[in-house]
Amino acid sequence: MSGAADVLAPGAAARPVAAASAAGVGRPSLLNLLFVLPYVMLMLGLVAVPVGFGLWLSFQDYDMLGGWNGSVGLANYVNLLSDRIFQGAVRNTLLFVAMTVPAFVGLGLFLALALNDGLRRSAVLRSVFFGSSVLSVTVVTLIWRLVYMPERGLLGTVLGAFGLPEVNLVADERLALLSVVIVTLWWIIGLPMTLFLAALQQIPREIYEAAALDNAGRARTLWSITLPSLKRTILLVAVIEAILQFQIFGQVLLITGGGPNNASRPVVQFIYEAGFRDWQLGFAAAASQVLFLLMLLAALGQLWLGRRQDRG
Amino acid sequence: MATRLGKGVLAAMAAGLAALASPAGAQPKTEITLARFFGSCEADYGTNTDLSRARGECGVITTLVNKFNAENKEGITVKPQVIEWGPYYQQLTSRIAARDIPAIAVMHTAQIGDFIRARIVEPVDADLKAAGIEPSEFTPNARNGVTVDGKVYALPWDTHSWLWHINVGLFKQAGLVDEAGEPRIPKTVDEMLAQAAQMREKTGKPYAVMATTGSGDTANGARSFYSWLYDQGGSIFPGGFDKADLRTPEALASFSVFEKLAQANAITKGLDQSGAIGTFMNGGAAVWFTGTWRIDDMLAAAAKPGSPLAEGYTVRVFPSLFTKESVWTDNHSWVLLRGGSAKPEVRKAAQTFLKFMWDNNLAWSRAGHLPARAAVLDEYAKLPLRQYVVGIPQIGRSLPHEARRQFGFQAMIGEEIVSVINAGKTAQAAADAAQERSEPLLRGR
After folding, report:
1. CA B71 – CA B67 distance, rounded (Å)
2. 20 to 30 Å CA-CA from B70: which of A52, A69, A219, B295?
């Protein structure tokens, strides 16, 4: 019976396919490229060409206003390697990513788990935690500068109320970067939380019901059901946040200015200053390539780790 | 047919509306763009055209533009493009590179050399002549600031400099006033530190306040540094403009003043501009290191009932703590950028606006700056507290136009000073770092 069906089915389908082929559908044709041409053009114009131009620029002596002064080979990269401000900027950026990405994953997951229910209170809190994400960097830094302001700031006032000594986060070389980490977490914790909430709602309820029937406790359920189900989302959040946080700039510029003593200057600020303040576009482009490489390595490393875990 | 008729009616209506919108005899409008800093205060001065009501830099410049737009007979509209002071030059440079060039831009004469070398700023001798402005009317300081190789590259707008803004009430409480009740100004670093210790002991307040954390705040440290460097007859380019030397004894001594102030806990740490203003206006520190541009703002603040400055507010030129009497100075000026006013009508409108501004130079100087127009200096000296600053052009110093990347140097030196104040960096380490950082700034330029 099934054999007859198998024989009949291809025969039945063969006529329309043959008709379609005769009309040219399904045949490889260069004209088909027209469908993807707009996207390809956009990619070329907005990504490939600027990336290629940036790479070329990194080997040139290019003054923003004075124009091109010839090729300098690897000189921009050699100068970068010996530039202590750049070395500090790379260190600060890596440190910032190392502090913020796990925090975004951990805190985002914690908030999502805590607020993943149908209560009105949770809905309000979800809006509150997401609310800060819609603010611009200027507004966010304005708020936090008032918090951090020595003597009259909120932080100093609260510490003073408890009889604790004031901590000048922004002016302390050891704490300046941490002050920016706090601001950044407060500002955009909403996105990881929302991604985790969406992922949590995709986990079938039946699995939890089965676990409950097996008398699995909360910790056991979290460890054996929730976290494995969120593995891909955790990876997604980590990759997105790593890429975003490597580009840290606005908060730093407006809160610490990169100081004190270069303790909080990120690579993007270095690029901005080299290119737009000092007009050394070639040098700035070389620093951009280094940042691009760092981001690429971090993203690839996380993806590789994710695939390895999947296979495991 | 009906469609054609409909189109005709619509066209007639459009023409009628256009005719109504531009009555016969009205001048065609010419718009010119004006890139500037000095802040944005549309809420207070958005429609004000009464110069006597305008206070501070922002109030005066906003009112001047409003007044010009309301009163000029040539149908010119000036569109201000207000940029924050900190990233002003970065944004202006980006706009020039992107060919989005304003017709007129404010520019410090310390920056003008780089823009002239890049052929972005053009000579304005012919424009000034067309506008009826005589360069011989400029004060010598202002004329020097805008003249390169015998050509005038900008309309000078003021001479500004670095001051001590003083809370006289706190000086009185600390017993640091003379018989006439005037603050005793220290003449050496040790005297200043002794005063700071006395201030702390008698009032519990720090001696000095200076903004150090905002994006434009590095300029504050640099201006103080330059003033103390010049007081010793020093320069950051002692051997020519191809190489800076920030480890000379004079430079090191300038860095050391900040190190000593920070070690003595005599200067505030970690404040941005608004924090510094708030601290001084609320009586939180005795001396504020800032410029001439704050005089009018502070006079207004001191006049308010219950102000902590009500017991007395005054200013002094940034005092010399070394052998010579000198101070950092700069000028604001108006430049015509290449490509920004290429059309003849725009160029003509720009000239008309420059003439208006020149005629109102005294109004601008009410904010605190010294006027660039020699004829109004006497009037300026009669304004409150100006007797203390009117002599600045005689002792003022600035880097010559040959010194390249002055903005980069200002930011870099200022940042090292911020590190000395906020992070406890030593003066020697700051000088070494500044020396190292100066080399990339001049590399290949």
Report:
1. 6
2. B295
